[in-house]
Amino acid sequence: MAAPASNLRINGDRLWESLMEMAKIGPGVAGGNNRQTLTDADGEGRHLFQKWCEEVGCTMGLDQMGNMFARYEGTDPEALPVYVGSHLDTQPTGGKYDGVLGVLAGLEIVRSLNDLSIKTKHPIVVTNWTNEEGTRYAPPMLASGVFAGIHTQDWAYDLEDAEGLKFGDELKRIGWCGDEEVGARKMHAFFELHIEQGPILEAEGKEIGVVTHGQGLSWTEVTLTGKESHTGSTPMPMRKNAGLGMARILELVDAVALSNAPDAVGAAGHIDIYPNSRNVIPGKAVFTVDFRSPDKAVIADMENKLREGGSAIAGQMGLDITFEKVGGFDPVKFDDACVTAVRDAAERLGYSHRNLISGAGHDACWINQSAPTAMVMCPCVDGLSHNEAEDISQEWAAAGADVLFHAVVETAGIVE
Amino acid sequence: MAAPASNLRINGDRLWESLMEMAKIGPGVAGGNNRQTLTDADGEGRHLFQKWCEEVGCTMGLDQMGNMFARYEGTDPEALPVYVGSHLDTQPTGGKYDGVLGVLAGLEIVRSLNDLSIKTKHPIVVTNWTNEEGTRYAPPMLASGVFAGIHTQDWAYDLEDAEGLKFGDELKRIGWCGDEEVGARKMHAFFELHIEQGPILEAEGKEIGVVTHGQGLSWTEVTLTGKESHTGSTPMPMRKNAGLGMARILELVDAVALSNAPDAVGAAGHIDIYPNSRNVIPGKAVFTVDFRSPDKAVIADMENKLREGGSAIAGQMGLDITFEKVGGFDPVKFDDACVTAVRDAAERLGYSHRNLISGAGHDACWINQSAPTAMVMCPCVDGLSHNEAEDISQEWAAAGADVLFHAVVETAGIVE
After folding, report:
1. Is the pLDDT of residue A1 over 70?
2. What are phi and psi of A401, to 5 degrees?
3. Residue A113: is it exposed, middle or buried by C-beta count within 10 angstroms (0-12/13-18/19+)?
4. What confidence tens digit (pLDDT) does each residue in B4-24 have?
5. Counting one residue from A and one from B, how many pairs have CB atoms under 8 Å apart?
6. pLDDT of B1 over the 60 cut
């Protein structure tokens, strides 16, 4: 396919206005958004997106998981479409850009093609995946997961929120349950633009992240059992201090991750101490170790080092220790041709860029199992996300959408 | 004064029966007791204690803090009494012996003197101090603290429990507020028998602890502030992990305490991590460091090492750190003559013994500021206390009461 000319750009002002318009639906309490999946606000956001899509001549498809597919025709009705999108749902105290940018940048691609009367061979389908966030209905990336065959639809329908309302019932209640079989669509490729949700691009002054891999994840819950005893009347040599054992294992986790620098990471975000009283030596510590790497073998090696090293520490301290794997997924390697299309687009458009490994999960990580996939990332201020203070600049949004535009259009084939 | 003959013993069966009888009042849910201060059960326990005291000819005094003083006359009505006792109140899930043993062993001394028609020169006063536990009305050792001039009575009366009920009102409600001015009594000496609430005596097979000192205490609340960020998308070098900083400071606390072995101890029993989510690097850690030593200078040195070393750790990791002293009291050195009386008694009676430093606070620690004071300790199973499973053997109780008997009677002066 011929590459688009470097002066071909999306309309950054229009993209920004649409982001601000969408952010009015399901406002948060601190300048961000609370537009959680399958709420009335989610339904309202979907209506606005559908209206915008139809205004530029798209036809909307809807599957039984509520995934929305706005199709902009190509010149070859037999050609598989190029899909582009992300998610419109937000965290309960979420930002205006996490997910939303990727959907509205897809819309902006179609609007720009429409402005310029450019045709592509392959149709382009702008997608809104249902329940990426997973806060109301865990797990995250639920509907893209069903699409990719990771979960069954029946299982997803039976998930309950904190009030006992089922996913399937709520999807029907808001009126966004379609007839289309989930996962039946075949894709020529899938592209997703997302804010980085990390600090690297901003810190290095790069405008574009070319996402080559998604980190694999391993969550191990560690339970250390010592003996509750009085902080005053128990001599140091007679203590079985589960809190001190935890401290030593946290240091081990750090060392193990650093020994796999620069791509691997490790930390414990969840820590509970029992009985958590100022004058009682902790008799129990429960904490979850989060290891990530783009290399499956490195994850397995880090898990082993945690189990071996943690057991040794516990043994030396007279503590009992158990390990339970409570979560995980394999690393993702995105499609070489799609990744190259993203990198070439950034280069052609003159945007500074670097390769990135996505540390968070995204719909693209599941769709990568069904279709050639790649991701574009743009910076976000201070790496902050899942927070109403999440912020990006209009320029960053436009640059990301430009790169997405070029990668999608080149893959879909401009008709000369 | 002449020492009592080594065949002079209390009645261990009677002491045990009284312990079991008292334990029927305010039973717990798991074999222990819930006889919290100023509850109806506390009042009922006081009535039983008074009845037993009066049966052996004592007259009961009662002060405005509800402290009970059962006086058994000596031969010299001008001589200052020797006081002996502890507390009848329990933790909400407390044991049958913590405090109660010390009061009923005092009663058993009087019963034994009465059995044997032995007279002492100094009167003996068996005391029940109100609210030693401090769980319903903090702080612990409240009424002995008012007696010793540590707290004012007005302040104590205004203390509120979790339901907003005032100490002074509840003391009157249960009918145990006396007329006597608190702290007006002068003592020749004070002795307290208590279970160890620690593991040393049982581990070393010793029957008696001769308590020479009470540990001083320092509580420092440490707040480490880093930056909340995603565990996946934040590279290791860009993290400000308050949880890891805490781990390093916990290791420092252990090293500082061990460098003052064997008497100093240190640990953190209270640890809170924020936001405490599996995939968020801790942005804040708040934990309380508990240092204890019988030497005031050692406590000050340990506090300084925590502040200096903790600040250095925080500085290296890009974390902010603050320290707040949230509790503390000075070490206690018990009266040499009283301690010697306890040690001599154990020796004379043929009980194995060792010196102990009390790690927990006791009424004797405050009364030591008003009168020559010492403590006797007996083992408890596995060091367990403040727990319904708290346990001692009848033999341990009898040995402790025997030693208390001899120390009290020698100090009070047997009339030949």
Report:
1. no
2. -70, -35
3. buried
4. 888 899 999 999 999 999 999
5. 200
6. no
Q: Which of B306, B303, B302, B214 is nearest to B260 (CA)?
A: B302
What is the ipTM for the molecules in this complex? 0.87
B255 interfacial to chain A (CB closer than 8 Å): no
What distance in Å separates the CA atoms of residue B64 and residue B147, rounded to the nearest whole number?
10
- The residues, ordered by sequence, that sit 6+ positions from B173 with a Cβ below 8 Å of its Cβ are B38
Tell me if chain B has a CB within 8 Å of the CB of A290.
yes
Q: Which of A288, A383, A386 lies closest to B278 in CB terms?
A: A288
Best A202, A206, A230, A293 member to test B by mutation, with max B CBs in 10 Å, is A230
* Minimum Cα–Cα distance from A228: chain B residue: B384
pLDDT digits (tens, 9 = 90+) for A143-190: 999 999 999 999 999 999 999 999 999 999 999 999 999 999 999 999
For the segment A65-117, what is each residue's pLDDT rounded down to a tens digit?
999 999 999 999 899 999 999 999 999 999 999 999 999 999 999 999 999 99
DSSP class of residue A414? Answer: B
Work out the burial of residue B278: count CB atoms within 10 Å of its CB; fewer than 13 is exposed, 13-18 middle, 19 or more buried: middle
Q: What amino acid is encoded at B111 in this protein? A: R
pLDDT of residue A277: 87
Q: How far is B121 from chain A (nearest CA, A)?
A: 36
Q: Check CB contact of A215 with chain B, cutoff 8 Å.
A: yes
CB count in 10 Å sphere of residue A101: 28
For residue A67, give the nearest of A193, A150, A177, A165 by alpha carbon: A177
Residue A136 CA: distances (Å) to CA of A54, A99, A386, B145: 29, 16, 14, 53
Q: Say how many residues make up chain B.
A: 416
Give the chain B residue whose CA is nearest to the CA of A263.
B235
Q: What is the mean pLDDT of chain A?
A: 96
Phi then psi dihedrals of residue B304, to 5 deg: -65, -40
Q: Searching chain A, which residue's CA lies closest to the CA of residue B261? A: A236
Interface check for A358 against chain B (CB to CB < 8 A): the answer is yes
Name the residue among B199, B217, B281 with its Cβ closest to that of A238.
B199
Q: Could you tell me the sign of the dihedral formed by the alpha carbons of A72, A73, A78, A79, in that order?
A: negative
